[in-house]
């Protein structure tokens, strides 16, 4: 998705020609370090769930899906830095066929990370809804087998959509469809929240007797959603401005912050595992066991 993601070469000229705002350039070491930390943290989440049978439930399967999305977002930047390093060392022909193919693969990882995050958060929201308002039927409705099937379908759809978006990224309808996913996800989760609020008001006695763990899960989702919006919304806005008003001075001034927006995306992958650990005592205990075992080995 070269005209959306690989803006490092033209962002300076855009800001210089259409506004007085200089491009904010951050050292590549910052991106690389944050990306490495994000990969390692989310890998710990996956290992913790894989090694502890007590965590192998639908809720944690959905959290693992979000962790994979975050890890792909970090891995995208690591691979991009490696490609840039090889090109600077002369091992890759600039603008060559291999570099073009590699760029498409790396861009696909980035798009897959965003789509996977959107779908994972939506599935987690649906899971929390069922947990709170269909608690007695939850284990019959949401089984581990069904959860895995849902995730397989989800990731198959995200993969196909990601490849399609990268292939046709030069078309404006593709950009519109890509950016529309963000508000659609928010609208879906907002509808669930409004419905939950209305049910909570009409069934106050019922919700007051719900286990605290169920409400804790809803709060965790709220925090995850807030962090996701804060980290990804600036990039989505950048895509829209670059598509529809690239020559406007105010748009160009905002686009000069492209690398700052990129760091925010990388930070999302670093923050999410801390949210899991802070909100989930079971996962926090699993993390401690992993660290202690590795320390004494």
Gap from first CA to last CA: 44 Å
Spell out the CATH superfamily.
Rhodopsin 7-helix transmembrane proteins
Give the overall average pLDDT.
80
Biggest sheet features: none
Shape: globular
Family: Belongs to the G-protein coupled receptor 1 family.
Protein name: Adrenocorticotropic hormone receptor
InterPro entries: ACTH_rcpt, GPCR_Rhodpsn, GPCR_Rhodpsn_7TM, Melcrt_ACTH_rcpt
GO molecular function, one term: corticotropin receptor activity
Protein architecture, described:
- The chain is mainly alpha-helical.
- It has one domain (1-16, 26-288): Rhodopsin 7-helix transmembrane proteins (Rhopdopsin 7-helix transmembrane proteins), CATH 1.20.1070.
- Helix content is 83%, strand content 0%.
- The chain is built from 13 helices and no strands.
- The chain has helices at 2-5, 11-18, 28-51, 58-88, 97-133, 138-141, 144-167, 172-202, 204-208, 212-244, 249-255, 258-279, 281-296.
- Helix 2 (11-18) runs antiparallel to helix 11 (249-255), helix 4 (58-88) packs antiparallel against helix 5 and helix 5 packs antiparallel against helix 10 (212-244).
- The N and C termini lie far apart (44 Å).
- Mean pLDDT is 80; it is low at 1-16.
- GO terms for molecular function: corticotropin receptor activity.
- This is Adrenocorticotropic hormone receptor.
- It holds the Pfam family 7tm_1.
- Residues 41-276 form the G-protein coupled receptors family 1 profile domain.
- Homodimer. Interacts with corticotropin (ACTH). Interacts with MRAP; this interaction targets MC2R to the plasma membrane. Interacts with MRAP2; competing with MRAP for binding to MC2R and impairing the binding of corticotropin (ACTH).
């Amino acid at each position: 998705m070269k005209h959306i993601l690989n803006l490092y070469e033209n962002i300076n000229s855009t800001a210089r020609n259409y506004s007085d705002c200089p491009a904010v350039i951050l050292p590549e070491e910052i991106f690389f370090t944050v990306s490495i930390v994000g990969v390692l943290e989310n890998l710990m989440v996956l290992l913790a769930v894989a090694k502890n049978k007590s965590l192998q439930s639908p809720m944690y399967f959905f959290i693992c899906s979000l962790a994979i999305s975050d890890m792909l977002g970090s891995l995208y930047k690591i691979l991009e830095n490696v490609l840039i390093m090889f090109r600077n060392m002369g091992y890759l022909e600039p603008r060559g066929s291999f570099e073009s193919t590699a760029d498409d693969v790396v861009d696909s990882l980035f798009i897959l990370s965003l789509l996977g995050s959107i779908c994972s958060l939506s599935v987690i929201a649906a899971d929390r809804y069922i947990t709170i308002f269909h608690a007695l039927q939850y284990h019959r409705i949401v089984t581990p087998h069904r959860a895995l099937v849902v995730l397989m379908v989800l990731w198959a759809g995200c993969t196909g959509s990601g490849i399609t978006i990268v292939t046709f990224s030069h078309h404006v309808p593709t950009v519109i469809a890509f950016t529309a996913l963000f508000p659609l996800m928010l609208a879906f989760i907002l509808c669930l929240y409004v419905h939950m609020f209305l049910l909570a008001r009409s069934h106050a006695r019922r919700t007051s007797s719900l286990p605290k763990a169920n409400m804790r899960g809803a709060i965790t989702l709220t925090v995850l959603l807030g962090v996701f919006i804060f980290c990804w919304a600036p990039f989505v806005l950048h895509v829209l401005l670059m598509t529809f008003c690239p020559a406007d001075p105010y748009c160009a001034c905002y686009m000069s912050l492209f690398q700052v927006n990129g760091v925010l995306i990388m930070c999302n992958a670093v923050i999410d595992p801390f949210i899991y650990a802070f909100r989930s005592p079971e996962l926090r205990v699993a993390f401690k066991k992993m660290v202690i075992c590795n320390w004494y080995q």
